[in-house]
Specification:
Layout: H1 3-7, E1 43-45, E2 50-53, H2 56-69, E3 73-77, H3 85-105, E4 111-117, H4 118-121, H5 128-138, E5 143-148, H6 155-160, E6 176-179, E7 182-186, H7 192-196, E8 198-199, E9 202-205, H8 209-224, E10 227-229, E11 235-236, H9 249-292, E12 306-314, E13 319-320, H10 321-332, E14 338-343, H11 350-358, E15 362-368, H12 385-402, E16 409-414, E17 420-421, E18 425-429, E19 438-442, H13 448-453, E20 456-463, H14 466-480, E21 483-485, H15 500-509
Parallel strand pairs: 3-4, 4-5, 8-17, 14-15, 15-16
Antiparallel strand pairs: 1-12, 2-9, 3-6, 5-10, 6-7, 7-9, 10-11, 12-13, 12-20, 14-18, 16-21, 18-19, 19-20
Helix pairs in contact: 2-3, 8-9
Function: Functions in the biosynthesis of the anionic phospholipids phosphatidylglycerol and cardiolipin.
Main location: mitochondrion
Keywords: ATP-binding, Lipid biosynthesis, Lipid metabolism, Mitochondrion, Nucleotide-binding, Phospholipid biosynthesis, Phospholipid metabolism, Repeat, Signal, Transferase
Length: 513
């Protein structure tokens, strides 16, 4: 059974048609994943351009350095920008860099584009919008701030649902931070917790112009169908664009689908042409090399040993690429392969749970203990969310036990005093290998929201380079080192007590968090 057949039922135009069973082309090692390029662009790079970061402080310092050295573009997509001193320092860095670019040339080439969620970015009197308005006022020609508003929050629903709770309907959840040709993929938002003591994942792709162009175009496409923040703190749509909650919903979603799929398909076509050109060049180079000796190799670029595949999930717009690829990876994982899967919010879709319980690979699933859950200690109803996650975890663990899968499927809880846990993604170890050859990193949490409600993006990084595989392995080990294995006794602890009302309400609301 080939991977491409599993994808067929989910494919909807304009997702490209897969023309051959891809797994039969390159079945060995990292190359077995080349079927993904039938759906999305494939970017071949050198592993030396990939750096795995490990701490919030390292992430924050890198953001500041990259902003200060940017010459052409700064593109940042996040759920929101916080309002504390650390976030203000980032805004100050942007202002300083924009000011320098103006002074250097009189008219600057530097462009700053920021994409946030409308509901989360508008929460409270002091919010993401008020943080960024001074930049819009000072540099109106260079700065763009787009606020995505889900088309599903409209009409009476929009009027009745209060602030904070309106964020459950759907969000802009993509996290990508891009500076000239350097791209940071992460699950972290632009907020002080994510710069200090909320553990996440972060990968820097250096000197990768094609990847940077792709994510610039993706953020532009979402920005074009988003509300534009004005200098007086009002918002308006671009001229001629359908409004997300006042206009026709179907028309809006069709336009959004078209804009995003244009980015994916045009990048895929570009990369295919580049791949063909590189292939022919390398063949000619080999011929010259055999005829003229080693002198002919001087102009040839090294063969890529690492491949980047951007995976987009925007179910409100009918785009399900990340879901398709993730389900196929879980389905095709062979016996004795190991999958390390982590999520800050353990609330897997039924499809993902069924695949984990019904397939052959070994699973080590890392999730947040109640004390490191981002909602721990929250006021009001939100304070019960960690208990709801405990209940969902207990139900899944019980199912694992009923199927006698405890050896193959193991849950582990991250616990670290004074920290919260927000890391998400997976690492895939092929059978017989001590190192991963594939990782998924980005914004999705593998839950209902990620698949059905929010705008999400992550990348699959596939590598055959041992040094990069070692980096990814160390990243995984470092996260799992702070965890304990879940057993039946875990749920007997006093802090795992779940009130009856939480048990009753959780099945009704689990699709909203």
């Amino acid at each position: 059974r080939s991977s491409w057949l599993l994808l067929a039922p989910l494919l909807t135009p304009p997702v490209p048609v897969i023309t051959a069973p891809p797994c039969s082309l390159c079945p060995e090692g990292a190359h077995r994943f080349q079927w993904i390029r039938n759906l999305v662009p494939e970017f071949g790079i050198s592993s030396s351009h990939v750096k795995v970061l490990s701490s919030p402080a390292e992430f924050y310092e890198l953001l500041k350095v990259q902003i200060k050295t940017a010459k052409q573009r700064v593109v940042m997509a996040s759920l929101y920008l916080g309002t504390g001193l650390l976030e203000q320092e980032l805004v100050d860095c942007l202002e300083e860099t924009l000011e320098k670019s103006l002074q250097a040339k009189g008219s600057s080439n530097l462009r700053v584009s920021i994409l946030l969620d409308y509901t989360r970015g508008s929460r409270g009197r002091k919010n993401s919008r008020t943080m960024l308005i001074p930049l819009l006022q000072r540099f109106p020609e260079q700065v763009r701030v787009s606020l995505f508003h889900t088309p599903n929050l409209r009409g009476l629903l929009r009027l009745l649902i209060p602030e904070r709770f309106n964020e459950t309907i759907g969000l802009q959840h993509i996290k990508v931070y891009l500076f000239d040709d350097n791209v940071i993929l992460s699950g972290a938002n632009l907020s002080d917790l994510y710069f200090t003591n909320r553990q996440d994942r972060y990968v820097l792709l250096q000197d990768s112009p094609e990847i940077a162009d792709f994510f610039t175009e993706l953020v532009d496409a979402i920005g074009d169908v988003s509300l534009q923040l004005q200098r007086d703190d009002t918002v308006q749509m671009m001229e001629g664009m359908v409004h997300p909650y006042q206009g026709d919903k179907m028309a809006y979603c069709e336009i959004a689908n078209r804009r995003v799929m244009e980015v994916i398909n045009s990048a895929r076509t570009r990369q295919e042409l580049l791949h063909a050109k590189t292939f022919h060049s390398s063949q000619q180079g080999s011929s010259l090399l055999s005829q003229q000796g080693s002198q002919a190799s001087g102009g040839l670029k090294p063969e890529p040993d690492t491949w980047i595949y951007p995976l987009i999930q925007m179910k409100p717009f009918g785009i399900q690429i990340d879901e398709m690829v993730t389900e196929t990876l879980l389905t095709e994982a062979e016996r004795d392969a190991r999958i390390y899967l982590t999520t800050g919010y353990f609330n897997l879709t039924q499809a993902y749970m069924d695949l984990i319980l019904g397939t052959r690979a070994e699973y080590r699933i890392l999730l947040a203990s109640p004390e490191v859950n981002g909602f721990f200690g929250a006021k009001g109803v939100a304070g019960a969310i960690p208990a709801a996650y405990v209940y969902i975890e207990h139900q899944f663990y019980s199912e694992v036990c009923c199927l006698h899968q405890q050896e193959r499927v193991q849950l582990q809880e991250y616990s670290r005093a004074g920290w919260t846990f927000h890391a998400k993604g997976l690492w895939l170890y092929l059978a017989g290998s001590d190192l991963p050859c594939l990782t998924l990193i980005g914004s999705p949490n593998f839950g209902y929201r990620s698949v059905h409600r929010d705008l999400e993006a992550q990348v699959a990084i596939v590598t055959e380079n041992k040094a990069l595989q070692q980096q990814l392995h160390q990243e995984q080990e470092q996260l799992y080192l702070c965890s304990g294995v879940v057993s039946s006794s875990t749920f007997e602890q006093p802090n795992r007590y779940v009130k009856l009302w939480v048990k009753l309400v959780t099945p009704l609301i689990k699709n909203f968090f």
